[in-house]
Design a protein that fits this description.
This protein is an alpha/beta fold. The chain has 6 helices and 11 strands.
Length: about 250
């Protein structure tokens, strides 16, 4: 994936600094307590980016590994301000095909990054890579892209402003339907940056394949190395009873 924005790790982090990493990690620990069959000491953040959640996990004394294909993000992570960030190991690798030297106890992927898998074949290979890197009984938590295809609100652009350390970032995110048969959307992410008088603009366009819930479940079951545990609300361990734009997929390594 070629990306202007992913080369700007600091601005990217500011744009998404509304994320409450502590609450998200609290939720991870609730899922672990309820569904993991093994004690969790090591964790893997796939497509980690600037890894706010991983830095919080490191603060809580988990052995933390961040995997990303982008060197800029990994270098930023190494230099990030957390006192325990040096305990974060970084690995440059493609999310489709990778392997760790030693398997971890818990793995996760956030912010709908699973959608960067181009097709179902890549998803199958990705699940195999995760399975090879995760101990039996360990969980893989997938924060899925918001999916509510039938709702007009799904297609409404989102715009928000964040600032930190004298830097202002205005973010615009929108998706448009490109190919309904192949489930392809065009995703546009735009950052308008004002950095102490200097104004810059960064825009990424990506054609991505949506993975619908039942399709996701079928592929996981077909792949065969995981137990499908359910679709969950994004902010709790409650299972979804109906379609929601916020959802977590939770699976467990056999």
């Amino acid at each position: 994936m070629k990306s202007e924005i992913y080369q700007q790790a600091k601005y990217y982090e500011i744009a998404f600094s509304f994320i409450d990493a502590r609450k998200q990690v609290d939720l991870f620990e609730e899922f672990i307590k309820k569904y993991s069959r093994i004690k969790v000491k090591t964790v893997l953040d796939i497509c980690c980016g600037t890894a706010l959640q991983l830095r919080e996990l490191a603060k809580r004394n988990y052995k933390s590994i961040g995997l990303d294909i982008n060197s800029n993000m990994l270098e930023y992570l190494k230099k990030a301000g957390s006192k325990k960030v040096n305990s974060v190991e970084t690995i440059k690798a493609d999310m489709v095909d990778f392997r760790l030297e030693k398997p971890v106890d818990f793995a996760y992927i956030m912010m709908g990054s699973i959608i960067y898998l181009k097709n179902n074949e890549d998803l199958l290979q990705h699940l195999h890579s995760v399975a090879q890197s995760l101990k039996s009984g360990g969980l893989y938590l997938i924060e899925n892209l918001t999916i509510n295809w039938a709702s007009p609100d799904f297609w409404v652009p989102q715009v928000w402003d964040m600032q930190n350390d004298g830097i202002k970032v205005k973010t615009t995110y929108k998706i448009e339907l490109k190919d309904p048969v192949e489930q392809i959307i065009r995703q546009t992410l735009d950052l308008a940056v004002a950095d102490r008088g200097k104004k810059m603009h960064f825009t990424d366009y990506d054609d991505l394949k949506l993975i619908f819930p039942q399709e996701f479940k079928t592929i996981i079951e077909l792949q065969g190395q995981f137990e499908f545990l359910g679709f969950f609300e994004r902010k709790s361990t409650k299972k979804l009873k109906q379609i929601s734009s916020d959802n977590i997929v939770l699976i467990r390594r056999k």
